[in-house]
Amino acid sequence: MHLFSPRSPLLPIALLSLWPTALLATELDRHTTQRIDVDLVIENARVFTANPQSPWAEAIAIDEGRFVYVGGREGLATFTTTQRVDLEEQLIIPGLVDGHAHPGYVNVENFGEVEGDTPEALLASVKVYAERHPEQQWLRLCCWPTAMFVDGEDGPDKAMLDAVVPDRLVWFESETAHDFWLNSKALQALGVTAATPDPKPGVAAYARNSSGEPTGWVKEGAGVQHFATQFALTDPEHRERHKDSVAEILQVFSRHGVTAIYDAGNKGFGEHVYSVIADLEREGRLPLRYYGTYQIYTPDRAKTAIAEVKRYRREYGSDKVRFNSVKVFMDGISANQSAAYLKPYVGSTAESQTLLSEEELTDLLLQLHDEKLDLMVHSIGDKATRTVLDAVEAAKAAITDSFYPRVTVAHLALVDPADLERIEELGVIANFTPWWFGAEPNDIVEKLLGASRYSQMYRARSVFDSGATVTFSSDEWWGGDMLPTYVSPYLGMQVGHTRQYPKSWWSSDDDGIRPPEDERLQLEQLLLGYTRHGAFQLRLEDVLGEITPGKIADFVVLPENLFKVNPYEIWQLQPSAVVFEGEVIQGAMP
Questions:
Q1: Which residues, 6+ apart, have CB-to-CB distance to 333 below 8 Å?
Q2: Which helix (H) or strand (E) holds 397?
Q3: CATH number of the domain that 209 lies in?
Q4: pLDDT, tens digit, for every residue of 167-203?
Q5: Domain count, the chain
Q6: pLDDT, tens digit, 9 for 90 and up, residues 388-411
Q7: Contact of 13 with 550, CB cutoff 8 Å
């Protein structure tokens, strides 16, 4: 019986009524005489279904890429199959969803690497690199350590670069990739002077001295806005290397069991990245569902976002590549003081700013409502989050019918206690990157925020327990040899569960647990965030996210039981098989 096409993931759920009613229950009538031929039967498994009504099962049957039975082993008597698998109590979980990733950005950058343990050594390395590469117009370098050059409101200065490279264009990326250090020649080439306005003061901005002159320290969108023009991928070898890198990191995601990803943007390289993703799908090299976006990192891009994301949909969209959302950077990060907090940074009196005002974001939400699009928001500070919540509340009040946009707020490093319950009340989705939750001795952010605020960061458990929809993500695009580890959802599960990094990463004998200790997430919560809730974020809840009859058969087989392994070894888990639409695409069944 073949009533469902695995290539039609948005098939109306009403069509499920075409199946015999017994097949849509978790338990079939053991006395039925009907015999139904299916593609695959799995028995003797530990199946975490992510279905709150029936969270565990021991057997599943699959036909035409859909689950047709989920329940006890005795119910399998109804089915006949040529492929029957005994999993010997291995764990099955639904296919995983990464709700905030950047796989398309891997190796877009073409950095020259420099290093040094002191400012003098690092700058000497810059000088050596410049001498060895006289052919490069732009010296695109990486990476300067934040703690080495940032002290409160003071940061790196162009004069230090001018001293070692006075006659070349230097663009030096920070280790956070959220701020940049330029020399005088580079600022001149970009036309940045004392008269140049900041795209958004306090967020996307050029740091300035007391005379108003740019110091060369460039933050967030003020720098990102130049990427696609100054550093376009024109070299054929670079373009091919980038495409192969994207193909490989997508395979890494797939091998970990990720079957759907939300790409949270590519710093102005969206046109190039999404053409690559579309090419990979045509070539049969796209192993998951890919949801793209359009980033707003300067206020002016809010005016073009909807038209651009709709154009992406027309030009690059397909069954597996979709564009249903735009992304806004409401603030930056704490380390360069571009994150927006309700109270000033320690030692500062400056009021934090958000990229868009409440009124501007409300207007954008109303436009998204009219166009049936969703919104993803980068929000680190409590002021940024409050502004988003206030805008959602205002937009909902202005709509007489059902409010369309699903608003996902990513990161939520600090949420004011008064706003914790509002996330659920307003129907906002909270997206956390749980592998960030580990203890970090000597973190510069603690110095900038003070111990009290720092000790209340990343309260994912409180948000989850409030009843809000919480999703999880990797949010990583660089990391060299460590990139496959950083993007692993099992690293996220371990650190989200323990609030400690893997012990091999510790900087002391005992780095401790990141406070608040009671914000440790349960493994069941983490799995729900990576599955059922992730599917909801992407509007796939009718067809994905759970192992229940009628839904697409995406699932992961783990050779070790996630709930029984040492919590400090979860990050090393690797699936033995990954099934996508009923077909094994990674590993193998026993």
A1: 176, 178, 339, 380
A2: helix 382-397
A3: 3.10.310.70
A4: 999 999 999 999 999 999 999 999 999 999 999 999 9
A5: 3
A6: 999 999 999 999 999 999 999 999
A7: yes
Among the candidates 230, 256, 276, a domain finishes at: 230
- Can you tell me which residue has the tokens 């264009």? 169
The residue with greater pLDDT, 89 or 6, is 89
Half-sphere exposure of 560 (CA within 13 A, CB side): 12
The phi, psi pair for 376, rounded to 5°, reads -110, 135
CA distance 529 to 235: 40
Query: What is the residue whose two structure tokens read 């929000």?
Result: 379
In angstroms, the CA 157 to CA 118 distance is 15
**Short-list 31, 34, 71, CA closest to 53:** 71
Which CATH number belongs to the domain containing residue 526 in this structure? 3.20.20.140
Determine the residue type at 264: A
Domain interval for residue 419 = 100-104+233-544
Shared-domain flag, residues 496 and 375? yes
Domain boundary among the residues 215, 230, 245 is at 230
The pair of structure tokens assigned to 349 is 């009196």
Q: Kindly state whether residues 335 and 325 are assigned to the same domain.
A: yes
| Bond into 12 cis (ω within 30) | no
- Is residue 84 within 8 A of residue 43, CB to CB? The reply is yes
The 8-class DSSP code of residue 276 comes to H
Output 52-55 pairs: Cβ under 8 A, ≥24 positions apart. Answer: 54/26, 54/548, 55/524
How crowded is the C-beta side of 222, counted as CA atoms within 13 Å? 29
What span, in angstroms and rounded, lies between the C-alpha atoms of 80 and 61?
Answer: 10
- pTM equals 0.93
Tell me: do 113 and 65 sit in the same domain.
Answer: no
pLDDT digits (tens, 9 = 90+) for 507-526: 999 999 999 999 999 999 99
List, in sequence order, every residue forming a beta bridge with 376; answer none if it has no partner.
Answer: 327, 408
Shared-domain flag, residues 387 and 417 = yes
Which pairing describes strands 112-113 and 138-144: parallel, antiparallel, or unpaired? Answer: parallel
Q: Verify that 346 and 255 share a domain, yes or no.
A: yes
What is the rounded CA–CA span in Å between residue 437 and residue 501?
A: 8
Considering the domain architecture, whether residues 55 and 83 belong to the same structural domain is answered as yes
Distance of CA 360 to the CA centre of its chain: 25
Measured between alpha carbons, how far is 27 from 508 in angstroms, rounded to an integer? 52
Phi, psi (5° rounding) for residue 553?
-85, 75
Rounded-to-integer distance, Cα 490 and Cα 63, Å: 29
The one-letter amino acid at 51: N
Q: Domain of 56: which CATH number? A: 2.30.40.10
Residue 247 and residue 185 share a domain: no
Predicted confidence (pLDDT) at residue 342 exceeds the cutoff of 60:
yes
